[in-house]
Amino acid sequence: MRKTLVTGGAGFLGSHLCDRLVARGDDVLCVDNFFTGDKRNIAHLMSHSLFELQRHDVTFPLYVEVERIFNLACPASPVHYQHDPVQTTKTSVHGAINMLGLAKRTRARILQASTSEVYGDPEVHPQREEYWGRVNPIGIRSCYDEGKRCAETLFFDYYRQHALQIKVMRIFNTYGPRMHPNDGRVVSNFIVQALRGEDITIYGDGQQTRSFCYVDDLIEGMLRLMDTPADITGPINIGNPGEFTMLALAENVLRLTSSASKLVFKPLPQDDPRQRQPDITQAKRVLDWEPKVALEDGLRETIAYFRQRIAT
Ligand code: NAD
Ligand code: UDP
């Protein structure tokens, strides 16, 4: 039985990861400070003998014995990570130092949930792992973007300096059940607004693009990356190359929810990237991975989740 730590395990992605790990027989320790996590995401696991929950903030050291660490702790939506930007940087940077220190002591293999935000507002399209990015170091998104960039630096320094087994995964926009209904991310916003009959808020002209990966595909890529041979470090992009404008996404959500909500246009937030699409050539080659769930199918699942959540 492998002892596996998931930081941020009560969050959207972390809870799905815990599900998969418990199902395959790992002995899972979920660590979370519940800043954006939700006990409902893991309630069904609480009585499972392979699952344990510890309330803990990763900006403080953690002393446990583990063999694998998935480091996901960090608020991911702009609304949440901008709420307390200093804590966001601390979570990424101090959190990475603490988890890397834990990996060094236990000789655990460690995976970092990095992000496409390390590419900033990119001049290269689609984004390949070799691209160094175009990030504003002093903007309102910088606490997250630069925090994640610094965490990547730390991972590679621990790899070079202490021969740690590291895996760095650059996650592109992911959606699915258990997203926080008020986290401000576009998929959850549009679905919740459509189901409640409220206006759909399009920021800017809605021509900016994103590529949306369904959570099950994402977690499969994460598990595959963790299990690669020691010489594979990444960084590696995991996301769905299907690229959509926010306007097209809104129209899809309206159609699938049969909602009569109206589209309204709001100012574009500062430093909002114009376009984003992963180049997943490496993921295909190294992990034999590519996403399988089409946007429409993933949206149907997510809409069903929010419909039930809103009703209760
Ligand atoms: P989420 O906000 O649902 O989950 C993050 C979890 O981390 C929450 O449970 C939160 O309570 C916990 N957390 C935050 N700060 C903490 C701290 N200091 N100590 C302990 N726990 C803490 O977000 P998510 O979408 O599940 O994202 C998970 C990870 O994946 C994050 O690191 C995020 O940056 C990364 N990521 C996600 C996406 C995406 O589209 N969902 C894209 C790129 C990267
Ligand atoms: N967005 C939008 N309406 C919303 C929420 C977001 O038009 O109600 C836009 C946002 O400006 C961005 C895109 O949707 O261009 C994706 O935003 P999200 O916060 O989900 O992810 P990120 O910008 O971090 O990729």
Order of helices and strands: EHEHEEHHEHEEHEEEHEEHEHH
From the alpha carbons, calculate the radius of gyration and give it in angstroms: 19 Å
CATH superfamily of the domain at 3-175 and 213-239 and 278-292: NAD(P)-binding Rossmann-like Domain
Q: How many strands in all?
A: 13
Shape: globular
Give me the CATH fold name of the domain at 3-175 and 213-239 and 278-292: Rossmann fold
Named once each, the bound ligands are: nicotinamide-adenine-dinucleotide, uridine-5'-diphosphate
What ranges have pLDDT less than 50 throughout 5 or more consecutive residues? none
CATH C-level name of the domain at 3-175 and 213-239 and 278-292: Alpha Beta
Strand arrangement across the biggest beta sheet? 3-2-1-4-5-6-11
Please describe the biggest sheet, giving its number of strands, its sense, and whether it closes into a barrel: 7 strands, parallel
Summing up helix and strand content along with how strands pair, one would put the structural category as: alpha/beta
**How confident is the prediction overall: mean pLDDT?**
96
The total of helices stands at 10
CATH architecture of the domain at 3-175 and 213-239 and 278-292: 3-Layer(aba) Sandwich
- Helicity, in percent? 25-40%
β-strand percent reads 15-25%
**Ends apart, CA distance between termini:** 37 Å
